[in-house]
Every structure is written in structure tokens, then in C-alpha cells.
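stage 2 :: seqdesign
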């Protein structure tokens, strides 16, 4: 079996460690493969995630779908607001 890299994370994606656009997109796009999807089929396109451009996509809020283009700081501010609203549910 090849090396398996696993992250355990909360769905809010609101954290001080989230410092770069590629970090957010690695967890908020199909680049992130859910553990339930393992093992991937040999022909699954997610095996070639680098060629799919997931990390370069526009930033989109995981919760409401608002698009932030490449404005990462604005997304972070929005995620903080979303986190507070989500936490109150």
C-alpha cells in the first residue's frame, strides 16, 4: 500500500493554521478525498488531482457558496462570520 496522508478536520475550515489559498482549496474542492471514497478506482480522475487545477480555483465559501475570487483575506473574514453563525445553530 502506498503512503496514505490523512487529515482530521472540522467542516467549518475556520482556523489560524489556514494561511494560504491552496490550503483552503485542498480541503474545499474535490482535491480533498473523503476517507469513505478509499480506495480510489484506478480510473478515478481524482488520482490526477494536480492536473485538475483544484488548488488554483476561485475561493468559494463551503457553507453559502459565496465566491471570493482570489481574495483569501476576505474569505477568511467571511469564514469567521460563518463560523459564528454556524456555532449558534
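stage 2 :: out
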Amino acid at each position: 500500500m502506498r503512503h496514505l496522508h490523512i487529515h482530521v478536520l472540522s467542516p467549518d475550515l475556520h482556523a489560524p493554521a489556514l494561511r494560504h489559498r491552496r490550503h483552503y482549496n485542498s480541503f474545499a474542492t474535490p482535491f480533498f478525498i473523503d476517507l469513505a471514497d478509499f480506495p480510489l478506482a484506478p480510473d478515478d480522475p481524482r488520482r490526477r488531482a494536480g492536473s485538475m487545477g483544484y488548488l488554483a480555483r476561485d475561493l468559494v465559501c463551503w457553507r453559502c457558496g459565496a465566491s471570493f475570487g482570489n481574495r483569501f483575506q476576505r474569505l477568511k473574514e467571511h469564514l469567521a462570520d460563518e463560523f459564528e453563525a454556524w456555532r449558534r445553530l
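stage 3 :: structure notes
- The chain has two domains: 19-57, 59-89.
- Residues 59-89 form one domain.
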